Amino acid sequence: MVNFKEIASVTLILFSIIDIIGSIPVIIDLRAKSGSIQSGKATIVAGIIMFAFLFLGESILKLFGIDVSSFAIAGAIIIFLIGFEMVLGITLFRNDAASSKSTSIVPLAFPLIAGAGTMTTIISLRAEYTLINILIGITINLGLVYLVLKSSGWLEKKIGEGGFIILRKVMGIILLAIAIKLIKSNLILP
Q1: Lowest mean pLDDT among 3-17, 75-89, 99-113
Q2: Which range marks the domain in which residue 141 is found?
Q3: Structure pTM?
Q4: What is the pLDDT of residues 83-111, one digit of tens each?
Q5: Would residue 14 count as lying in a domain?
Q6: Which of 141, 138, 160, 142 is nearest to 28 (CA)?
C-alpha cells in the first residue's frame, strides 16, 4: 500500500546514502577529465543496478544463509560509518575510481551512485518498508540524480564550497540517526 510517510523516509534515506549533492565535486572533476558526462546513461545504469538488487538481493542473501534482519544491521553499521565520515570530514572508505573511457558508468553509475552503501541500504529498507514505497523512493532518487548530473555546473556556482560542507554535515547527522533506528528495529534481544 502506498504510504507517503514511508516514501518520504525511503527517499530521504537513499538521498543521504547516494549523496549526489556531496558528490558534485567528484562529478565536476570527472566531467573535466572526460570532457562530458552522459547524465541519462549514468542514471539508467544506476537504476538497473538498484532495481536488480532490490528484487534479487534477498535471494542472494538466502544463498549465503543470511537473514534480512542481520543484513539490515550490517547495513546500518555501514550507514553509521558513512554518516560518521560525513560529519567528521574523514575518510574511512576508499573510492577506487579506476580510469575508464566511459565515466558515465564507472565510476559514476557504479560505485558513486549505486555503490555498496546504496545496495546495502536497499536490502535494509526491505526489512522496514513495503516494496511499492521503496520502488517509488528509488524512482524519485533517480530523478533527483538525473537533475543533479544535468545541472552540476550550475549547482557548483550557486551553492559554493561552504554550502556543500554544511549540506554534507547535515546529511551525515541524518544518516547516523537512521542507522541507530535500523539497528534498534532489527535487533532481536533474548
Answers
A1: 99-113
A2: 39-92+102-186
A3: 0.74
A4: 888 888 887 755 444 444 567 787 788 87
A5: no
A6: 160
Averaging pLDDT over each range in 14-23, 35-44, 135-144, 173-182, which range is the top one? 135-144
User: Which pairs from 62-70 meet CB under 8 Å and 24+ separation?
Assistant: 68/123, 68/126, 68/127, 69/127, 69/186, 69/188, 70/186
Element (H, E) at 166: helix 152-186
- Residue 62 placed within a domain: yes
- Cα distance between residue 122 and residue 187, in whole Å: 18
CA dihedral 158, 162, 166, 168 (to 10 degrees): 80
Residue 12 located in a structural domain: no
Answer whether residue 125 is part of any domain.
yes
Q: How many domains does the chain have?
A: 1
